[in-house]
Design brief:
Largest interface: A-B, 30 and 27 residues
Strand order of the largest sheet of chain A: 5-6-7-3-8-9
Shape of chain B: globular
Radius of gyration of chain B: 20 Å
Number of helices of chain A: 10
Number of domains of chain A: 2
Shape of chain A: globular
Distance between the termini of chain B: 41 Å
CATH topology of chain B: ABC transporter involved in vitamin B12 uptake, BtuC
CATH class of chain B: Mainly Alpha
Largest sheet of chain A: 6 strands, mixed
Helix content of chain B: over 70%
Oligomer: heterodimer
Strand content of chain A: 15-25%
CATH architecture of chain B: Orthogonal Bundle
Helix content of chain A: 25-40%
CATH superfamily of chain B: ABC transporter involved in vitamin B12 uptake, BtuC
Order of helices and strands of chain A: EEEHEHEHHHEHEHEEHHH
Structural class of chain B: mainly alpha
Number of strands of chain A: 9
Number of strands of chain B: 0
Order of helices and strands of chain B: HHHHHHHHHHHH
Distance between the termini of chain A: 18 Å
Chain lengths: 298, 289
């Protein structure tokens, strides 16, 4: 399954949804006498169009940093990221990426209706003198319908419950017709029944809109329902495979690494550390990737 | 009041009515204060380098220095609030205080220089008049003087108001998305930094234009009060903008009538009447809820 040599005859029929190649990122130092914090170290992974990727890792493991890099809101310190074959910034400006933020910081006191919020990304791509056309309105209607808020579409966002507001933000993320949907910790503070409904919603969107989805979470229970493959992230990529392969040993290591890192006593299982250092390890699921791929030979 | 002054005032308050909704929703009221006080530093610099506004050229030069200083202050506040731990309130506190200090020191230096140059004439009528003038000038800087608005200045104020309103209209959707959800709109292809810079520059320019009428201390009020009042009355977006502009204009007309009727300064009267309208809207908003 693992092939150290790239196949020269391989030509991608379609650009990968996400291609992360040897990416490191360090946050700049925040004060005198302090050093920058390295959040990610040599991450490589490849996500095919239509995949459902889960990114699992401890708090501070670099999950949100990786998302910001995918969205082009941060630039890698080294390495490259492509989203559908173009730079993340380009992909973002073209509206290829839909994003659900971790914490919804939108101003709830705002005089905006559900419909107006959902339409904002589409409206922002219009020229000043253009108005929302019937095809735009249809896209907004469909997005609101898919998250089940049709009856509330004129309601001010300030009058929504937390769950309704989150669904509004999901509708906002899909209304512009993205190809990639990135969800940052969407299931924090949601009960088990709510998580189940949420997973169903995400899977429905994935299926009906042909999306590639990336769900970031530190919640182990939540991930299997929304991901075909799981990437375990604790500064480095520890594991990148189907959720069934996620053994207690792997998890213990990913989450223990975090603790050990804090204590200054990094203690990583030798076998796993070796795997992490080998980027080809990141591509081990032929069912999902469809081809073997030498991660560090590009 | 002259027609140019009346029209200039109406143009500026209309601009204030439009921008104030965003200012209030995005919580930029205090940035407006910071910018207008920073403009005082610009006034000081202009006076020290000899741009007193006595001639057309020196008026333009003075305006350019004040505008440059105000825009720099707005962008400085934005940059500081991004980096420093205290956020924008610390940044504004720093910029506002430092600019006011610089302004007072430089205005003092300029007026001492002026007095030194006119030594010997101090007790002449002319010297007394100049002394009176410099007091009046300081008051004008601080609180504005609509009556001193010449037709040319009125034309500049009206033109600037129209241009800024047009740019804000063209950017309205991005401004809204940015103001509503700044951390996220970047992920949807809005260039957050550009939108922020553009809005702060527009706000700084607007405040400089409004300073003629309401002075350093009160200029930012007309970019807060109408929007705040409108948002007390409605929870919907378009009505909020319409009400804000209406309240701004009614406040201005009321202020001009009260001010010229009672012989009070016009700028503060307009701000006062807008303040009364705000109080009414606040009470009415409470009743509505």
């Amino acid at each position: 399954m693992m092939n150290p040599m790239p196949d020269p005859s391989y030509q991608p029929a379609q650009a990968p949804a996400i291609e992360v190649d040897g990416v490191s990122y360090s946050y700049p130092a925040t004060g005198i006498g302090e050093q920058g914090v390295e959040a990610l170290q040599r991450i490589s992974m490849l996500v095919e169009p239509g995949a459902r990727l889960g990114i699992l890792g401890p708090n501070g493991g670099g999950k949100s940093t990786l998302i910001k890099l995918m969205l082009g809101l941060l630039k890698p310190t080294s390495g490259t990221i492509r989203v559908f074959g173009v730079s993340p910034k380009q992909a973002r400006l073209e509206g290829l990426i839909g994003y659900l933020p971790q914490r919804i910081e939108a101003q709830r006191a705002w005089p905006l209706s559900v419909r107006q919020v959902v339409g904002l990304p589409i409206a922002c791509r219009l020229k000043p003198w253009q108005r929302l056309g019937s095809e735009h309105n249809a896209a907004i209607d469909r997005a609101i319908e898919m998250v089940g808020l049709t009856e509330l579409d004129a309601r001010p966002v300030g009058a929504l419950s937390g769950g309704q507001l989150q669904r509004t933000m999901i509708a906002r993320a899909i209304a512009g017709g993205p190809k990639l949907l990135v969800l940052d910790e969407p299931m924090v503070g949601v009960d088990v029944a709510g998580q189940q409904r949420f997973a169903e919603l995400i899977n429905t969107l994935h299926r009906e809109l042909g999306l590639t989805t990336v769900v970031v979470t530190h919640d182990l229970r939540a991930i299997a329902a929304v991901a075909d493959r799981v990437a375990c992230l604790a500064r480095t990529l520890h594991f990148h495979d189907a959720p069934e392969g996620l053994t207690p040993q792997v998890l213990a290591d990913v989450f223990a690494h975090d603790v050990a890192g804090v204590l200054g006593d990094v203690h990583v299982d030798a076998h796993l550390a070796e795997d992490c250092a080998d980027p080809s390890h990141t591509l081990t699921d032929p069912g999902c990737c469809g081809h073997d791929h030498g991660g560090d030979n590009r | 009041m002259s027609w140019p002054a009346i029209l200039a005032s109406l143009a500026i308050v209309t601009l204030g009515g439009g921008l104030s909704v965003i200012v209030v929703l995005k919580r930029l009221a205090f940035i407006g204060q910071g910018v207008s006080h920073a403009a005082f530093g610009g006034v000081g610099i202009a006076l020290v380098v000899g741009l007193s506004g006595a001639t057309m050229a020196s008026t333009i030069g003075q305006g350019a220095v004040i505008i440059a200083f105000s825009i720099a202050a707005a962008l400085w506040i934005a940059a500081l609030s991004k980096r420093s731990a205290g956020g924008s309130d610390t940044a504004i506190g720093v910029v506002l205080a430092v600019s006011m200090a610089i302004g007072f020191i430089l205005v003092q230096i300029a007026s001492e220089r002026f007095e030194a140059a006119h030594e010997g004439h101090d007790h002449s009528l002319e010297g007394m008049a100049h002394h009176e003038d410099s007091h009046h000038a300081m008051e004008e800087i601080l609180f504005g003087d609509v009556l001193s608005v010449t037709p040319n200045r009125a034309l500049v104020a009206i033109g600037a108001s129209v241009v800024i309103l047009a740019i804000a209209w063209a950017m309205r959707r991005k401004l809204l998305f940015w103001a509503f959800d700044e951390p996220v709109c970047g992920a949807f292809g809005v260039r957050t930094d550009r939108v922020q810079r553009a809005f702060l520059i527009m706000l700084a320019l607007s405040i400089v234009v409004a300073m003629q009428m309401a002075g350093v201390v009160l200029a930012s009020a007309i970019f807060v009060l109408p929007g705040a009042a409108a948002l007390n009355l409605t929870g919907r977006l378009r009505p909020a903008f319409a009400l804000s502009v209406a309240i701004a204009i009614i406040g201005a007309i009321g202020g001009m009538l009260v001010g010229s009727g009672a012989g009070m300064p016009i700028g503060p009267s307009i701000v006062g009447v807008q303040g009364v309208l705000y109080a009414i809207s606040f009470a009415y908003g409470r009743v509505l809820k």
